[in-house]
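# step 3/5: fold
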Amino acid sequence: MKLHYDMIVIGSGPAGKRAAIQAAKIGKKVLLIEKNEVVGGVTVHTGTIPSKTLRETVLFLSGWRQRGIYGRSYKVKDNITADDLKQRLTTTLGHEIEIIQHQLMRNGVEIQYGHARFIGEKSIGVEDHDGIMHDFTADYFVICVGTKTRRPDSVPFDGEAIMDSDEILKLSRIPKKLLVVGGGVIGLEYATIFKALDIEVTVLESNDYLLGFVDREIIDELIALCRKEERTRFEKELVEYEDETTIESELLNIKSAHLLGQGFLEAALKAMQEIPLVDQDNYGQFNPFVRRFKDCVNCLLPDSVTTYNRIELIELMLEMEFNARAAETADQAASIYFDLGEAFYNMSYFGQAWKATDLFRSSASASRAYRNKGQKIFSQVGLPLGNAENFDTDRARRYFDLARRTAKSKEIQVAAAYMAAKCERDDFYTKQERRTYDYFGIIETDYSDTQFYQRIINECRDFQAYLLK
């Protein structure tokens, strides 16, 4: 006979536990199903609580918080081992599991351990850890099964040298070096934990920014406040002008500029389109397609040049992407790719259209970026928390490389190689410790018979110095 409940909850993490207890508090008969041998879900066993416990254990044993008083060499314990970390972790997790079990029992929530699957519209089967099937029915089901780590088939996980963020909690030894793939919240948390143990840690991130979503999340929260029908006094201080209008359009402009600087054209366009039509021209007029042999930041555009607001600019760039793929000849496609590269270059710190992606710019930031490789946020007068400067020319370089590979004309190829060389130089200014000259080598070897090559020799002192080496 199948046991019947008012509600069955699958998963005993924070959501499942709260749903089960809340239903029980209003007099419902509730069954909670958990596939693991103990309750708690991801939060208790592999997520928030284990990672925070590990962090606090490392900070204590390493003496990190006391080093400001006792010096950098201070430690509470020398030769910290994996067992030292596991001991504190096991104690904390056991305590948390006891608390959850007590809460569920106190509220009359029944627990069944095993793997659940639906066997009918209102019925569910649970295979327990001994392989025995149990059948239940319910009027309502709440599914709170949590998450699991992504494990691509191309990565040879072995739980020892290569592991995911769950397995790292089961380390058998403390490594001497650690490579963390992914600069998100979890990756950076474990990177900083192990760095506190004086381990050599490297973070590998495919995107241009660590925690690149954070700025957008803050902006989105403020936009949501602008759209609330009623705001608290504090919320009004955050997002309202004195006339009770909001800063929503300004926030959307900031969001669009940020996304455009990262190369997310569709998302940047969507943000700008939410600004009222009558206001869309209030946030700048740009033309980043003007070709400059030398960098020119504040040069005036010729009167004959058409300018675009940000919506028009993004729509044009998206159209150019399509036209390049549909071009009849290779050189037509290459010319369009070159123009897109020029646009992304000119919208970086080094070009005349930087305002399209960077709402504030300081001329001192280039030298500061050179001294502090990889830094993009710099404090300024009136901006003590810092301003994010857009030094990224990676997308520009990709388009220049695409133009060079696509073109049949050597003049287009050498012009694209020259602009890619400028991107390579800018990477040295802001990212790399060592200057490379890969594109100068390509120009010298492959394009010495072109007209553009002669211009490079005559006008580019950087290339002249390269030839003299």
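# step 4/5: annotate
The chain is about 45% helix and 10% strand.
# step 5/5: archive (pending)
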